[in-house]
Amino acid sequence: MTFSLSPLAGRGGYRLEAFDTVGSTNAVALDRAQSGDPGKLWVVSKRQESGRGRRGRAWATPSGNLAATLLLVETYELKTAATLGFVAGLSLADALDAVFSGTPSLASARIGLKWPNDVLVDGAKLSGILLESSLLSEARFAIAVGIGVNVVSHPEDLPYPATSFQALGSACDAETLFLALSDSWRENYALWNEGRGLGKIRLRWLERAAGLGGEVSVRVDDRVIRGIFETIDEDCRFVIRDENGERVRIAAGDVHFGAVASASAG
C-alpha cells in the first residue's frame, strides 16, 4: 500500500510528497518552503533517520512507523501558529478513533492528549508532535507540523510508558493511519481558522485532556511546580493549582502525572 491523501484533503488543496526513507520530514518540509513551496504540503515516510523531538531530543522512526509533517506557509502572527500543536493532537486523536473503530479490542481504548504535544493510548505514549518554523520573505513564515507515530514498534528505554499499534493489537499500518489523519486535519484546521476558532479547538482538546483534575508536576527549566491540573487557558497555557492554592500558568514545560510526578520531575 502507498501513501495517499483523503479525497477531501486533495480537493482542499493539500499535496503529498512521500519517501521510503528520510532524514527528517520537518527538515524536508522547511527546505521546500525555502525553495518556494506555497505550503499545504504533507511530507511523509515510514522510516526517519534523524528525527527530533522537543528540546532537541531524538525521535526514532524505525521502518514501518509513521513520520508525517505538514508544511504551511502563513502571514499571521507566529504566536498564533504555536497553537497548531493542539490542532495536530486533536486531528491524530480523531484519526485514531476512525482506525480503532475497526478493532473490537480497541473500541474502549482511552485516547488522551497530554499537554503540550503528546498523544496517549490508555496512558502510554503513542505519538509526539513537534512544530518548527523559519522566516521567509515578504513577512511570511513557514511552519512545519511534525507528527511521529509508533505503528510497528515503540522505544523501551523511556522513563514513561510507551506503546505502538502493534503492541495494542491493531493491524493498522502507517498508510491507513495517514489517510485518516489527512482527513481529520482538514476538518480541525478549518475549525481553527487561522486562530479565530482556537476557543473551539481548546474545548475539544479539554474533552480528551490526559490527567485533567489530577496530581501533576511540571518541570520548567530548573524549577518543579507541583499541584492539580485545572485546565488550559485561552492561550493554551497549562494551568495548575499549586501546593499553596495559587493558580500558575505555564507556557512551556515537561509534565508528569500522578504517582510518577514526584519521582520523574524531582
Fold blueprint:
Blueprint: H1 7-11, E1 15-19, H2 25-34, E2 41-45, E3 66-74, H3 78-81, H4 84-100, E4 111-114, E5 118-121, E6 124-135, E7 141-149, H5 165-168, H6 174-192, H7 198-207, E8 215-220, E9 223-232, E10 238-242, E11 247-250, E12 254-257, H8 260-265
Parallel strand pairs: 1-2
Antiparallel strand pairs: 2-3, 3-7, 4-5, 5-6, 6-7, 8-9, 8-12, 9-10, 10-11
Helix pairs in contact: 4-6, 4-7
In whole angstroms, how far apart are the ends?
46 Å
Number of strands: 12
State the helicity in percent bands.
25-40%
Quick one: overall form?
globular
> Which fold does the CATH topology of the largest domain refer to?
BirA Bifunctional Protein, domain 2
Q: What is the residue-mean pLDDT, rounded to a whole number?
A: 92
Keywords for this structure?
2 domains, BPL_LPL_catalytic, nucleotide-binding, biotin--[biotin carboxyl-carrier protein] ligase, 266 residues, BirA Bifunctional Protein, domain 2, seven-stranded mixed sheet, five-stranded antiparallel sheet, 12 strands, ATP-binding, SH3 type barrels, ATP binding, alpha+beta, 28% helix
Structural features, described:
The chain has 2 domains: 7-207, BirA Bifunctional Protein, domain 2; 215-265, SH3 type barrels (Roll), CATH 2.30.30.100. Helix 4 (84-100) packs across helix 6 and helix 4 (84-100) crosses helix 7 (198-207). A hairpin with a 3-residue loop joins strand 4 (111-114) and strand 5. The strands form 2 sheets. It has a 7-stranded mixed sheet with strand order 1-2-3-7-6-5-4, with helices on both faces. A 5-stranded antiparallel sheet has the order 11-10-9-8-12. Helices cover 28% and strands 29% of the residues. The chain contains 8 helices and 12 strands. It is of the alpha+beta class and 266 residues long. The N and C termini lie far apart (46 Å). It is globular, with a radius of gyration of 18 Å. The protein has helices spanning 7-11, 25-34, 78-81, 84-100, 165-168, 174-192, 198-207, 260-265, and strands at 15-19, 41-45, 66-74, 111-114, 118-121, 124-135, 141-149, 215-220, 223-232, 238-242, 247-250, 254-257.
